[in-house]
Design a protein that fits this description.
two-stranded antiparallel sheet, 6 strands, extended, single chain, 88 residues, alpha+beta
Length: 88
């Protein structure tokens, strides 16, 4: 999903062409932000858009992901439990 600058269309706040960051309450380090207070919804919307447009990604609901499966350092799948039934 990395596309050039890695932003996927998220409108990050920038200064001199670089994404700005700041310390945020409840964090231990610096975080990137948007020029508005809507960072989490904007990132979520961008990720949903990319997922919907990417062939091969299967969307499922009511799952609790407990682990990610990797091959050569790249995530290739996930292990999850169904929230309603507890089935893997």
């Amino acid at each position: 999903m990395y596309q050039g600058n890695g932003c996927l269309g998220v409108g990050w706040a920038r200064k001199d062409g670089k994404i700005t960051s700041a310390f945020a309450p409840g964090t231990t380090g610096r975080v990137a932000s948007m020029s508005t207070s809507s960072t989490p919804p904007a990132v979520s919307k961008t990720l949903r858009t990319v997922v919907h447009k990417t062939p091969g990604i299967i969307r499922k609901g009511d799952l609790c992901v407990v682990d990610l499966l990797k091959v050569d350092g790249e995530v290739t799948g996930a292990v999850a439990w169904h929230a309603g039934t507890g089935a893997p």
